[in-house]
Amino acid sequence: MSGGRNAELSREKIAAKALEVLDEVGLDGLSMRRLATELGVQSPALYWHFRDKRQLLDHMADVIVLSAGMGPPRQGESWQDWLARRGRGYRMALLGHRDGARIVSTAHSLSRETIARFDQELAAMVALGFTPALALRTITVVNQYVTGYVLQEQAARPAGSAAKALTPQSDERAPATVIAAIGESGGVLGQDAFEHGLHVIVHGTEILLP
């Protein structure tokens, strides 16, 4: 390939194409060789921009996290509404890419821009009455909840398998309370179940404020 073609590459272009390939083949199918082929270059051209695949994956995670719309509460927005909105936005960002939760949960580092936005969020929470430690723990809990939830959503399982996992695998009588609970709630995954967990975190945090 010509040097001119390689010169057109950038970290942003490589990461964008990598996310496209990720959506097509998943994390296990993503390789530097496959990515180079999709970009029309030789593999060594990628290493001018990323030291190795791990660094590329970290950059992809950063792109996904930033797409969630990090930042402090909007003017007039309560911290409760902001935290819930943040959790929903983060979930949609992870769901926006195949294996998005795996990419983010295994990241080794994030960019200065992401860390700076995180610092803005913490500062806003402190200004609203949180201690620095409580602000950090609150956002961390939301992030961990959302990431774990999406990991389950993105697991390669047939529809309804989460509910089936709670039912007997033999001819024994089905557990009536479990079946009734699943029927009433609509299942252990999905939007309603996610909102319930988010509600518990947000309103549980209220009692911890000094």
UniProtKB/TrEMBL annotation:
Positions of transmembrane segments: none
DNA-binding residues: 31-50
Pfam families, per database record: TetR_C_1 (PF02909), TetR_N (PF00440)
Molecular function GO terms recorded: DNA-binding transcription factor activity; transcription cis-regulatory region binding
InterPro entries: DNA-bd_HTH_TetR-type_CS, Homeodomain-like_sf, HTH-type_TetR-like_transc_reg, HTH_TetR, Repressor_TetR_C, Tet_transcr_reg_TetR, Tet_transcr_reg_TetR-rel_C_sf
SUPFAM superfamilies in alphabetical order: Homeodomain-like, Tetracyclin repressor-like, C-terminal domain
GO annotation, biological process: negative regulation of DNA-templated transcription; response to antibiotic
Alphabetized UniProt keyword annotations: DNA-binding, Repressor, Transcription, Transcription regulation
Domain (HTH tetR-type) ranges: 8-68
Highest taxon of the lineage: Bacteria
Name this protein carries in UniProt: TetR family transcriptional regulator
UniProt organism field: Tamaricihabitans halophyticus
Taxonomy of the source species: Bacteria, Bacillati, Actinomycetota, Actinomycetes, Pseudonocardiales
